[in-house]
Design brief:
about 200 residues; alpha/beta; globular
Length: about 200
């Protein structure tokens, strides 16, 4: 699973940032990306695509990744911006923000010398490679998927749940579940709903 990073390291790259996003298909909330640089010899048991892990396992791995990572950056793009520029462009923007926000444990800004991305291209002037199903085949992208997922879930369970308790964001995390769609029809959309995603629900 570390093949890409090891090959790049042999070519002389030492700060290999791996990037993934979460929340692309949600009806509400930000799309969130994480950029993570793991030590080349890092082997945290159990790291894989965040969607294949239980919530408890993700949270445990999230803490391990934060301990080991050489640098982490988070990028967020708001529902309003998603509606303005579309979800794909918002996802790319969140990824770019995550890269520019990368810091080490001491708060120093870190600029990667190579980027591995899950099925996208960023064109940041840094050498990059797009990996199809990167969150399944690349250790670093799997780590980034876990960081992004736990970070966004925490927004759902804390910030957005407290602001809009009637929608039960802590449970469905903004995805289009039956309960969520029913609550939108009952209460109407709130400020963090993506209006461009609600056209089939609110007619």
């Amino acid at each position: 699973m570390r093949t890409e990073e090891l090959l790049l390291n042999e070519e002389g790259y030492s700060k290999i940032a791996c990037i993934d996003e979460v929340g692309r298909g949600c009806l509400a909330g930000d799309v969130v990306s994480a950029a993570v640089i793991m030590p080349i010899d890092s082997v945290i048991e159990g790291i894989k695509d965040s969607k294949k892990l239980s919530e408890k396992k993700r949270e445990l791995l999230y803490e391990r990744i934060k301990e080991e990572a050489l640098a982490i950056g988070i990028g967020r793009v708001s529902p309003k911006k998603i509606d303005e520029i579309n979800i794909r462009q918002a996802t790319l923007l969140a990824m770019k923000i995550a890269v520019t926000n990368m810091k080490d444990k001491d708060g120093n800004i870190i600029r990667p010398d190579f980027i591995l991305i899950d099925a996208e291209r960023l064109d940041l002037g840094i050498p990059e490679k797009s990996l199809v199903k990167g969150d399944e085949i690349c250790y670093g992208i799997s780590a980034a998927s876990i960081v992004a997922k736990v970070y966004r879930d925490n927004l759902c369970k804390n910030e957005w749940e407290n602001e809009y308790p009637e929608y039960n964001f802590k449970k469905h995390k903004g995805y289009g579940t039956k309960e969520h769609r029913e609550n939108i029809l009952k209460y109407g959309p709130c400020k963090i709903h993506r209006q461009s995603f609600l056209k089939k629900i609110i007619k």
